[in-house]
Amino acid sequence: MGQPLNIGIVGVGAISGQYLAAFERLDAVRLAAVADLDEARAKEVADAHGARALTVDALLADPEVDLVLNLTIPAAHADIALRAIAAGKDVYGEKPLAADLGDAKAVLDAAREAGVRVGCAPDTVLGTGIQTARKAVDDGLIGAPVAATASMLCPGHERWHPNPDFYYVPGGGPLLDMGPYYVTALVTLLGPVASVVGAASHTRDTRVIGSGPRAGETIPVSVDTHVTGVLRHESGALSTLVMSFDSVATRASNIEVHGQTGSLIVPDPNHFDGEVRLHALGGEWETLPPSAGYRGAGRGYGVADLATTPPGQPFRANGDLAYHVLETMTALLRAAHEGTAITVESTCARPAAVPLQDAPGE
Ligand SMILES: NC(=O)c1ccc[n+]([C@@H]2O[C@H](COP(=O)([O-])OP(=O)(O)OC[C@H]3O[C@@H](n4cnc5c(N)ncnc54)[C@H](O)[C@@H]3O)[C@@H](O)[C@H]2O)c1
């Protein structure tokens, strides 16, 4: 492996700890600097990880930073990405690619013009859970895929997140927040989406923060919090989706994929691993051993995957995939409001399968 890619993180809130932990075991990347609007927080994280704390402007201009890892809230994703691209940096951001599709397109267009790379979460789909399921589909273990179901039902993130405001404004909601895991997994398993129909509801105008210093504070809700729909994949397979912040509990599988000769239970796409179960026609449920994907992966493996992919080659957690996923989700919300089927204009390649291995580049 060559020199590690030097990473500058903008936004070191709740999720940053998972990236920082993964970077310590990945040779392909090296933490150079961090920045946050909360400068004391940036300094604390920098000191704990032997990196430099900078202002956002200084980090974006820093010659040592090769890639800006954008872990800010969705409303800031496009602005930070565009500023990083203007500074000539590669960018990799948390999901969604942007809070709105027009902004996401602007990011991809600017990156193309500047000749820099755009990566985007989720990279959970590169772990052994989704990759083993994908290999089962590709190896024909369920025959021709016909349909999938995807269910994410929970009471809402305000119960545990200390600053949950962003989950209830555009760019959030159960679909834009959790949908990227599910739709990216469905595209990985069944290929890109051609059109969508949907229905959605906005059940409450406010939520109450359940933990942290702001516990008890009421926050506004301006998005749909129960979203359902059907995605018609280009292959003809149909995926039925339910994403809800309005449910107390569920026993539905996160994802099931059904083919002409078998059914698969796919583990939680918000996790990297988990049990894949197959029921072949005429047989019984059996657990498939991990057969593909990065073993023991965590958030940040998608950055390392980009870092170890030669320039000009397609890396897996890429902006075109994230854009297609975002367009599919925004089309679903439009379909729900307009009561009509909506064509998804973009498409993308299914990212390359990940052979079973410990880390990108090995
Ligand atoms: N919390 C989770 O469990 C989780 C899981 C997966 C993905 N994500 C995604 O990660 C992203 C961040 O989520 P989080 O939970 O860490 O949020 P957070 O609010 O805990 O942290 C965001 C951080 O970004 C900083 N920030 C915001 N705007 C900024 C700007 N313009 N410039 C510099 N810093 C800025 C904030 O000060 C804060 O420290 C979101 O896109 C979210 O969807 C979160």
Which term fits the overall shape?
A: globular
Task: Kindly report the spatial arrangement of strands forming the biggest sheet.
Answer: 16-15-14-13-7-12-11-8-17
Low-confidence stretches: none
CA-CA gap between termini:
8 Å
Round the mean pLDDT to the nearest integer and report it: 97
Q: Tell me the fraction of residues in β-strands, as a range.
A: 15-25%
Number of helices: 9
Structural class of the helix and strand makeup? alpha/beta
Question: Quick summary of this structure?
Answer:
Residues 5-119 form the Gfo/Idh/MocA-like oxidoreductase N-terminal domain. Residues 130-264 form the GFO/IDH/MocA-like oxidoreductase domain. By secondary structure, this protein is of the alpha/beta class.
